[in-house]
Design a protein that fits this description.
Layout: H1 33-37, H2 50-63, E1 76-78, H3 79-89, H4 107-115, E2 125-127, E3 129-133, E4 137-140, E5 161-165, E6 170-176, E7 182-186, E8 191-195, E9 199-202, H5 204-209, E10 216-219, E11 245-247, E12 265-273, E13 279-287, E14 292-293, H6 301-309, H7 327-336, H8 346-349, E15 355-359, H9 366-374, E16 381-384, E17 387-395, E18 398-405, E19 409-411, E20 417-419, E21 424-429, E22 447-454
Antiparallel strand pairs: 1-2, 3-6, 3-9, 4-5, 6-7, 7-8, 10-11, 10-14, 12-13, 15-22, 16-17, 16-22, 17-18, 18-21, 19-20
Amino acid sequence: MAVAPTVARDRPATQLPVPESGVIGVTDAYLAPEFWVSKLSAPDKVLMPRAAIDARNARLLRDDASMHDLSALPAMLPRAQVAGWIDGLASPPAKPLWDEAGKPVPKATLDAIVANRAIDAIPANQPTRYGMAVERAALRTFPTLLRVFSRDDDTDIDRFQESALFPGDPVVIAHASADGQWLFVVSPRYAAWVEAKAIAEGDKATVLAYSQRMPYRIVTGAKPRTVFTREAPRVSELQLDMGTRVPLANVAADKPVNGQHPYSSWVLDLPVRDGDGRLGFAPALLQKNAESSADYLPLTHANILRQAFKFLGERYGWGHSYNGRDCSGFVSDVYRSMGVQMPRNTSAQAISPVFTRTHFEPGDSRDKRMAAVRAMQVGDLVYIPGHVMMYIGNIDGMPYVIHDTNGGSFLGADGEMRSMHLNAVSVTPLLPLRFNKDNDYVDRITNIVRVAKDSP
């Protein structure tokens, strides 16, 4: 059933000012997290205690079909399971694709990439091997670095880019490409191809224990880097994204680390890949003035806002490309800094059985949708097909969101569509955002998820 075009009851979208920036309804004051924190009555109230978050994370791993419990995998992997992971990620390309130069990718090139998966070489049974990411690494649809696009004028949405691994992420190594340059790995949140040089193989106990080692630091900044060191290039200026947990190295406090005194830095114990591809560990320095914490931040409305705004202005990166993140990666990295684990993609986040959610069918009334919008709390996630936004508060009855978006359009006073070309983590009012002239984002909401509350 078609949904009739409407505007917000509380405040028509056409009444919002459009400043010189062209971003409707947004002034510079709205770009500071404290503006939104100041509107809260209890900004520092803990919304879920650590024990409840940990218990829910365990349920997520157990009950959410999009997640993978690496510790529960059998000692031997049958061919059907490995082939199912690889085939389930993507079918061979059936539609035309273009490269970064805007030229069609030849069918022979695509056929060679697909063949590089070497599915016929998967053994009937194989021992389950474990490994760890030693750097931020792209997870790819196929074993190739070739960036491909659905249109000849689009060089942002790489259709072979899936997600990313972060230093210390555990994986199961399920298969290798024919050329030996790629591994198909299964991480807790995703299964895809990664360059072999980014993975170090280790025994199961060592790999799985890394994320439990103490003491540790939680990265709370957007993406700080380790200190430059020529003595240890493998851990020099390594990007550590928000929410990454890294154990501290057991080193003397008064001895140099990588050529410098460590008193002004945290000494991290980072995974490295030895010459034979095996897992090792090496100390690396993270400056103490970089944003990190001895534990996960408390789950509060104030922390949700402050963490989200640390990404404001970061370029949109489909599948965690551009050393950034996309809409679902953005919200999951924000919540990860408070110890909350989430599925990788919007399709899984929106329906995960462990989160409290309000679901909408296409035929649900505008009144039902707007009632749910008005009942939102800071940090609630608003899902529409292919996108997620985080609610940050109201101004004169107008709900505002922060989201990592590659688009953003609204109706101008003349009734014509206006594109804001945001392509970044952005603050916008919710109600003016539109798919087209006839449908706004509210019309297309599929789910509203309250992450900061346990499921019933």
